[in-house]
Structures are given as C-alpha cells and as structure tokens.
Amino acid sequence: ESRDIVLRIDKKSHFRPEFQSKHEADHKSQSLQATVNGSWIVVSDASLQPVLYEIEKNCSTLLMPVKISRIALSNDGWKSCPSILEARVPLGTGDLLFTECQRLWARAKESAFIEVNLQKSSSIFRSLAFATSRLGVPKVTQSWLELDSDVIGKKNDEEIACESCAPKKPDVKWTMVQKGKTIQFLPIEDGQRQARYEHNMKHRPDAWLVTLQIPGEDKSMESVDIKIGVNAVSLAHRALGLFPLSTLARRAMIDAPTSAAGISNKANMIFDWRVISHVEKQSADSGKSFPRLVFTSNKTTEPASQPPEFESRYPLRPEQLRSLSWMLSQEASSAPFYEEEVVEAMLPNLNWRAEGRAQRPVLVRGGIVADEVGYGKTAITLGLIDAAPKVNGKPPAIPEHLKQSHLHTKATLVIVPSHLMGQWPREISKFLGSSKVVVTIKDIGSFNKLTVNDILQADIVIVNFSVLSGNNKYFPRLAHFAGVNTSSLPKGSKGGRHFDDVYNECLVGLGNRVASHREDCSTAFEEIENDAEAHESLAIEEHLRLDGKKSVYKSLSEKQVNERGFTIASKSKPSAKGKASAADVDPWELRSSKVKSDIKNMKSPPLEMFFWDRVVVDEFTYLLEKADRARVQSLVLGLNSSYRWGLSATPPHETFDDIKSLASLMGIHLGINEPLPCVLSKKRGGSKEDQETSASEKFSSLLEVRSMQWHERRHRLGQEFLNKFVRQNIAEIDEIKYEEHLVAMDLPAAERGIYLEMNNYLKSLEMNSKKALKSKKDSKGDRENRTQRILENSGSAEEALLKRCTHFNIGSAKSSTALEACDLIISQRKIELVECENELMESIAAAVRQRNLILKHDKNWKGMSRTEKGEVQDTLERYIVDVQNRNSIQGGADEEIHRRIQDILKLAEDDVKKTPHKDDGTFAEANGDVEEEDDENGSESIGKKRKKKDDAQIVYSMKFALRNHMHKVRALSKELRGRMQALRYFQWVRKTQLEHAEIECIGHGSTVCECKATGGKVPRNRVGVLSSCGHVGCLSCLEHHADREDCIEPSCQVPVKRTHIASAAALGVDRTHAAGGKYGAKLTAIVKKVKELVEGQDRVILFVQFDDLKEKVAEALQDSGVKSLQVQGSVAKQIKALDVLQKETPAKDDPRVLLLTMDDESSAGVNLTTCNHAIFVHPLLAESQQQYNAYETQAIGRIRRYGQTKTVHIWRFIARDTIDSEIYEERTGKKLSS
Question: What pairs with residue 893 in β-bridges?
C-alpha cells in the first residue's frame, strides 16, 4: 500500500495519536509544529519532446521506435531484448543522478554498460523523475504485437515452453502422515527438484531490461545513456507454461482435418505482447465494478425442423426448436475457442505494464443448456439425439491417439441424479418410443450385470450419480483393473486434488490395459492380480510424520495398517466366512472363456474405457457445489466423447471462478487458479484445498501479484465463453396463475425465550458465524463438547437458530412443551456452567503444579515478565495478577464474574496444596514422561517415540508448554463469562414472562428517566434487559447508558449498544402453559395449513433444508394423520415415491404430501405438476444471493412449469424478529410487516 505524505510533524513535538472509545466533552486539541511538502510549479521556458535523432551534445535526447520488427519466438529468443526507449540525459556534478551513476560505475569496474537491478535501484528512476514522469508509453507498443511462432519448439504437435523462461514445476507426490490419531495424505515435492525449480525461477530472464552507459571514449560522465527493453519472448513463454498439456479439446483441434471449414492453419497458437500505461486499481470492490456476467438466449435463432420421432408423437414447441437448432449447430461447428493466458510485468516508477499473451485454439462440440425451469431441457436433448444423425450426418471419427486405448460406441451417456432415474426412461419412451436401445444403470447391482457389448449396442445409457460417487465399489474396481494401488485412493466419498491425481493415474493404466487386451483377454486377470501383488509388497513403507519424527509405520503388520484406516491392495483373498463372492474377486468375469475370447463379453466395464458419441450431465450444478459429488465431476472430466453437454436451469455465473468451473466441465482451460484480491474463494473444499497444496506451492503463489486489469481481462474472457457455449431461454409460463402467501407470525413467549436464549448464548461464545463448525470430540466436559451440545448437531450457528424458529426442540432433549423445554435448558446450562468451572479449576491447578515442577529446576523463573533471549514468560503469574486486579478476561466482565473466577483460583490453589503431585497427563509429553515401549511382536510401538533431551531442553519445553496451556485457561475464563451472562439473561427472560412484578432500576440515567420519579421502581412494560450481559433496568436508563457504550451495572465492563436492549413487553407473557403445543406454534400452523389443503384434494410439497428438521416435520404430519413421502433410500424407493406424486389421478389412500430437501438435487429436475402448493418451512440458508435464487428457482420450478393446469400457490412461514425474518428481508429486499 502506498500513501502520499501530506505533512511531516516535528519530532520535537513528541506527538502520539490517542485512540479512545469514549470521547469526553472536555477533550482538548493540541498545537504542533509541522512541515508541508512542496508542490509542482510550471516552468514556462522548458519543454521535453521525443525525437528520432540526437540533437546535440549534452542535450536531453529521447528515441522511440516507430516500428518494431516481428520477433522470433524461438527457445533462445529471450537472449535478445528489443529496445523500446533510448534516452540521453546530461549529468550535473553533484546532482542526485550524477551521484547514483558514480556509485554504480564504481561497482561495474570496466564494464561498458550497467544493467540496472529494478528491485534495488529505484533511486535511479527517482533522480530521472523530471523527465520520466512526463514520458508516455511508445505508441507502437500499445497495440498487441504478434510474435513469430513458426520456430517455437513442439512435442506431438503441441507448443512447448522454453524451460529457461518457464521452469517446469516438480511433480507432487502424496505421502501418508500422522497428526495425533489422524492419518492423512499430504503433497510433497522432491527436495532437490524443488530447489532446482526455485533456482531457475529466480534466474529466469527478466521481463524488463534497463541499462546505463556513459557515451564517448573518455567516459567523462557529462551525460548518461539509458535504454529500456522488453523481453517479449520471455513473457510469451511464461504465458505458454501456464497451459495444461494434451487436453482432449486441444488434441481435437490439432487432429481436426485441415480441409474442414475454418480449420486450416488455425491449430497453431498465437503469441503477442504489448506495453501500456499502468494505473493501479483498488481491489476493495472485489470485482463488483466488472460488468455483470450474463447468458445469451436463442430468441433470434432460426428454429430447427421437428426431430423424426417427435413429429408424429409430441412435437417440440417453437421456442424449443430454436434451442434444438443451436445445439445442432454447436455439434456441427468446427470453429475454435481460444483459451488464453496473460503474464504481466510492471516497470517501477514509470508505471508501465508489459504483457505477454498466449492464445491456444481448442475444439469443443457441445455446450450448456441453461434454459429456465420448466422449459423442457430433457425433451430438447432427446430431440438432439434423434435429429443429429439426419441433420449433421456421421459424428467425427475417434481421435487417432485414442483408437487403441478406447472402445468406440455410438451411445449417448446420460448422467443423472438418483431421483431422475425413473423420469428419463419415461421421457425417452414418451418422445422416442422404441426407436432407441436404452440401458439404465440404477445401482451397482445393475452395473455388475452390464457387459461391454450392451454399451456398444445401446443408443442411450443412463447412469445414476450415486453409482459413481460415495463409498461404493466403482473407483476401487477401476484402480484395481487399471493396475493402480487401491490403497492410494482417499477414504470417504469426497474428491479433491489427491483423488484427482490417483484417478488420472487410473485413466492412464486403464488405457494401457484396454490397448493390451482389446483383441485378447486371456491373460488380463493374471496381469491384474500380479499388479495387485506388487502393490501389496510396497503397501507398508517408510513415511513422514507431520512433526518430522521418524516413521511409525515402518514395521507395521498388515492388520495394524488396516486398523488405522488403510486398505492394502492385494490379490483377491477369501473372506473370514469362506470364499469371497465372484463379484468381489472378478467383477469383470475375465477368467471366463467367453471374456477371454472376446472383450465384448466383459462385465462391469469402466465407463472411461469407451469413446462415447455424446456425454450429457443433467443437473450438473450439484456436481460443482456438493463435496460428496466431486468424484462424479472428476469422472465426467475423464470421459472422452465427440460431444459434451450440461443441463441445468441454475448454473452458477456470478464470478469468474463460477464460469471457470463451467468451462472445466466442457474440457476448456479458462485460466490458472487465481482468486480476486481480498476475496475468499467459494470453491468447494475450502480448508481441504489448502491441505492439498504443498508448502512450496503456497509460497510460489505469493511471488506474483496480478493487477485488477488482469482480473478484468479474465472476466471478459469468461463472458466470451458464455457467449459461445451457454444459452438460457425463459420459459413462457406467464399463463400459469401464480400466487404467493406470506404467513408472518410471532412466537409464543416460551418459544421466543428459547430462541433468544440460543441466540444470546451463541453470541456470547462468539459463534455467531456461518463458519461455526460442530465439534467431533466425544469427551464429556470439554469446551468443544459443550459447544456441540449448544449447536444441537447443526453445522453452524445460523442453522441451529433456523431450526429453533421452526421447533423449540430439535436436539436430544425430551420435552413435550416449550415450557418444559425452558426448564430443561436452564437445568442443562447450569450443568454446563459447573462443567466449565470444574475444567477451569483443574486447568489452573495443572498450571500451578507445572510451575512448581519448573521451579525445582529454575528457582528464579517465577514472575519472568517476557519471552526473549531463550527465556519464556511466566504467563501463570500474569494471569494470577490479572485475576486479582479483575482484569483476567479480554473484553471485560462484571463484579460477580470476577469474584467467581477468584473463587475458582483459590479452589485450584487449595487443590494443589492437598495433592501437589497429582498428574493428569496434561504436560506429560513436554516433561519427557512418555517412555518407549515395544508391542507384543517386538516392533516399535505406535506410541510417540522420542529422543533423549538434556535438562535445559526439557526445562524450556516445560515452560513453553505452560505458556501454551495458559491460552486454554484464558479461553475457559472467557467461556465462563459467556455462560454466566447467558444464564443470567435467560433466567430473567423466563422470570419476566411468568411474573408481573416491578423491578428496581439501578441505572444512572438522566434526570428525565422515568425511574427517577418513582424512586427506582419500574413497571414491567417499561423494563428491559441487556442481551450482552443480562443486566436489567428501565428502558430510559438502558438507552442512556447504551448511547455511552457502557452497561447499567457500574462494575460491568462489557460494551453495550442499543441493539442489545430487549424490552419485557417484546418478550411476551406466558398465558398458556401449552404455548405452541408439542410441535411449537410455527410447525403447528404449517401442519394445519397442509391438512386444510389436503382435505381440499390438493397435493403439497414441503421444502426443508435440514434432515433432522425434515424428520420433525414428518413426525408432526404423521401425528396429525397426514400421510407424506420423502425421496430417500434406494433408487427404487426414490422412483416409487415420485411415481405416487406423479400420478394424474391419485388413489384414495395415496399420500398427497412430499417432503423435499431444499438445497440438494432431489429438488431439481423432477416434474411434479400434479402438485400445486409449495410450502417453504423456513428461508433458505445460502452462501450467496445467487445460490439462494438458484435453489428457490429449482424448488418452485417443480410445480410451476408446462403441464400445470391449476393455480400455483407458494407459502412462506416466517417467525418475526428472528433469523427467519433477517434472511427473508436480506434475500428478498422486502420488509416484513410488523
């Protein structure tokens, strides 16, 4: 950050700025001595003009090129750096420039010229400021200048970057490490290769070359020649080095016939460069100033003819024919799309920016159909499958480099969510009749029965998301078949970089396996088993620990490794009960005579072994957003096909990163991973992505800072991608009647009290964040477990509060009414408070014992005031002093809390006196108390093995462990404050809801406060409580103190705002002990409405975001005698549930209510026009406005679409003055009426 200096304050004034949270009325100003900077003045008789020749000796001369010859982009072209500016500047003895030149030449000795280090010689440019500040960038370089790429190096017809300019990064390998009980894989590079890479990066050719030279033979230093050059070749090679090699889209462009229209001579990359003025743009707007990314429609596209099978069955609508026309033209297109990378280099002080650009043509046939919900994307896609052979003719031949490694099939592969496995076959039957051979893969069982020949003979293959994701057998089988160690596959269902690396290795092995056995499979099974045996012998090897200590895995048995979560790749072995099943040993039936003679008889074939005619991914958005669908996305990218399509009504397109994810689905490289400055990436994975980045990669990412102009250019490239590959058409459904109903309600007093208790509790514990994660620890009494009990199995504070708005008891507590829930909460909070006090006491006692142990080795250490010079501060002593001075909690507390902590400290000291040698193991490792042990087999224990330390090392380790332990003590003290304040607050809320007595105000408000006139007595309707600390007073006094940001209680140091004041009147009064009944007021109202609609013979969809809340809604419906269905369980169960709701005429006993999860694929794609009511139980909790709009659009689109004959009703139930209303108002921009 750079800031202009406005004035300089005289040091003699000894001025120090004062920062105060409260400004008193008597605050005084201070007079200071200061110097104001000078200013520019106009010199009327001086000028500077660019010329093309030297005017005369000792005069300023400036030369700029009028034309620059085309530069050859050879591998050693970087050795020549064309000059874009030359200047001769006179030197005056004693001036700054003369002094700088003298200094440089003294170091240069006999050199004819000096190359200026741009990082260390900024003073040179400052001394030339009188001239350079007025220099403009040469006009000839401001436009893109193409480089001659005919001489660039190539490999397999692909351009290869020069390693001098773009050093190759070392390969990343995955190493198994242990951190505590957690075992994970982390990326590392070979140390020597990484060092070589860093050396090459530091010594790659500079983008700018600035040289100084003294003209004349006598070197009299009367003037100096300055030359500025740009290494355009180096910049271009750097840009080229950013592209991934051998992508399918790039190979398609290279292999395309040169006779095809628009292909000739267009497979070569384009390289160019330019130099322009650089104006630094602020990144504070996070790219919001960039133009909005928009979709194009097919409104002006000429409609296609009706597909052959559609004409006599169900003809497509005119707007659908326009979309079909675009899809057909996309598949017939041979026009390239240009991927692009740009590298920047700034010239300091001159504010010039050099840019090198590499543009790579790729060929992708397909696109993304983003037509709105209800437009009929499935029907249009089936129309494409039907019409393409007639309109476009035969598809392109399989690429030459894939002919041996892949089996060519004419089939279109359709990848769909589980709940659409019934709808797609029905739509195919409806529109195409029996004209197409269709294969469905619903689950792993149906996949086991599938043969290669089935796929080769099929026209359409439909596969379920779940077959390709989750903890199933697909990917382990793929790795086993491809000869890759199955134990290298990450556990669980999530994807990520590690999984992608292993998966890509599987693709290579799969291609080799197919190429070897496509004609003869007689030895395939034997080779697969031999590969597995080879992996087994290498499965247990030397690995690293996170703490750098020696491997703990070296001598592990296979049983031990399996117990620690690893899968050993091995030859197929019998199970404990006997022989393993045939599907587990040989799912492909490679040992059968049929398969040995013909690969077409092979079963359970990996989908990646085929070259498909077309790949279609329905509702692909959920692959991009859901972590447990990441492996399906990786598989989609690993599939090879002539055409590629994605279907979704709500694809993300808010940022460039969103567009980049869409482009990756199409196999297009839209740019390197580089988030906008000051903007957190929304990429799925978050911390996992950080874990899967090596330390050197994280460091390298900080070496280059891209300008906002660079990001703006990428933003424009993203729009170019949308223009070419994405179309979104609006469903013309205005004729479908549509009504919205907003049901705003006040929670009964008891339920409101429960909600406020959680809201205040979470705020007091600083958990009011979307990233408040639930703890996975099981130990009772620790801080994380208490926190988890508050969240009640929710992923965030916001989620827990949303659930509380709908029902007062989602957790495990058993209470039949809200009143009982209140009593249980108070009881539970008291227990948790005692747990916190006990843990704080035990932690302080452990700290005191540890210090006593340290003092036996270092008697003078007590009270050490700072950490420096090999010593560690005595943070326990500092804490004790703070407790005594009532200053132990950051942010302050009140007298009651401070007294409680003092009592706890006294209890801890008494406990130490009673049991001075008690050891709970807190400091065992730091104190060197862990001994080496051998297991029963004589091998090294999995326990922590340590080297012997000398006494000084141990004492230092003991001190440092105590210092770290005191952070926990401070945190527990802060937690204790929050728990006491929250309990105080909730107890008063319940008291005022149940009683009507007056209170006595302790405030010190103004003389006009109402409590002054009544001697401090205040009626209930004028009483308020501070949610921040639980102190009570009259509303006037509370507001008076809040305006001063202090509490009504003099000893309370908690800062207060007006928003912390809750009036007793707003809390309500318990007039009935039943409150909202067993299920609470809101859920009871929803069930009542559903029952009313069902009795009117309508069918209803209820949208709920959270599984546990959905179960509570289902329970409430059942208790009210309302039958409901959920889309869950096996594929067959999901299809059956939807079939019931999709019947045009329901049976008498058929359920009329469907519960759907609001933010997953079950709420997308399916046609439910038989229902005409959609009820949102609560507002959607979403990360962004775009995500909120997308999920809600998908939800409403289930019933408001073509085919709907009734009026559509949307119901929203909102609890006032809760997170319900906050989310609703924020996302809709509408104010909820009071």
Answer: none
CA atoms of 537 and 551, how far apart (whole Å): 18
The phi, psi pair for 73, rounded to 5°, reads: -95, 60
Per-residue CA distances from 811 to 509, 780, 1103 (Å): 49, 17, 20
DSSP per residue, 479-527:
HHHHT--GGGSPSSS---HHHHHHHHHHHHHHHHHHHHHSS--TTHHHH
3-state secondary structure (DSSP) of residue 997? coil
Q: How many CB atoms lie within 10 A of CB 645?
A: 27
Specify whether the CB–CB gap between 531 and 485 falls below 8 A.
no
Element (H, E) at 1175: strand 1173-1176
- pLDDT tens for each residue of 45-88: 666 555 544 444 456 677 777 788 888 888 888 888 888 888 88
> Tell me, what amino acid is at 790?
I
**What residues form DSSP beta bridges with 90?**
223
Q: By the 8 A CB rule, do 410 and 394 touch?
A: no
The phi and psi torsions of 490 (rounded to 5 degrees) equal: -60, 150
- Residue 259, pLDDT above cutoff 80: no
Can you read off the two tokens belonging to residue 1182? 């979403």
pLDDT the model gives residue 1090? 94
Question: What is the Cα–Cα distance from 1064 to 109, expressed in whole angstroms?
Answer: 86
> Residue 362: in which H helix or E strand, if any?
strand 352-362
What local confidence, expressed as pLDDT, does residue 623 receive? 81
Cβ atoms of 273 and 355 within 8 Å: the answer is yes
Q: Look at residue 356 and tell me whether its pLDDT is greater than 90.
A: yes
Q: Do 90 and 55 touch, CB atoms closer than 8 A?
A: no
User: What is the spatial distance between Cα 738 and Cα 1207, in angstroms, rounded to a whole number?
Assistant: 6
Q: Which letter does DSSP use for residue 1022 in this model?
A: G
Strands (E) in 663-750, as ranges, are 726-727, 738-745
Residue 450 CA to residue 459 CA, distance in Å, equals 15
The helix (run of H) or strand (run of E) holding residue 340 is strand 337-347
- 380-392 b/e (C-beta count within 10 Å ≥ 16 → b): bbbbbbbbbeebb
**DSSP, res 603:** B
DSSP letter at 748?
P
Instruction: Name residues whose C-beta falls within 8 Å of residue 1145's C-beta, 6 or more positions apart in sequence.
Output: none
Task: Judge contact between 1130 and 1124, C-beta under 8 A.
Answer: no
The number of CA neighbours under 13 Å toward the Cβ of 603 is: 20
Evaluate whether 269 touches 362 at the Cβ level (below 8 Å). no
**What CA–CA distance (Å, rounded) separates 388 from 410?**
12
d(CA 688, CA 185): 11
Distance between CA 401 and CA 393 in Å, rounded? 23
Tell me the DSSP string of 386-426. HHHHHHH-SPPPPPGGGTTTSEE--PEEEEE-GGGTTHHHH
Look at residues 726, 736, 629, 749 and name the one whose alpha carbon lies nearest to residue 684: 629
User: What pTM value is reported for the model?
Assistant: 0.76
3-state secondary structure of 1025: strand
Residues contacting residue 823 through CB under 8 Å, at least 6 positions apart: 815
- Which two tokens mark 869? 């010079």
Number of H helices, E strands in the chain: 39, 34
Q: Across the strands, what pairs with 1155?
A: 1102, 1126
C-alpha–C-alpha distance, residues 1225 and 1221, integer Å = 6
- Average pLDDT score, the chain: 81
Q: For 584-628, write each residue's pLDDT tens digit.
A: 778 999 999 999 989 999 999 999 999 999 999 998 888 877 777
Q: Which residues pair with 175 in a beta bridge?
A: 186
> Averaged over 804-833, what is the pLDDT?
78
Residues 519-574 pLDDT 10s:
888 899 999 988 888 876 655 444 433 333 333 333 334 433 333 333 333 444 44
Tokens of 927: 């104190």
Environment class of 815 (CB within 10 Å of its CB; exposed 0-12, middle 13-18, buried 19+): middle
Place of tokens 């490694």: 405
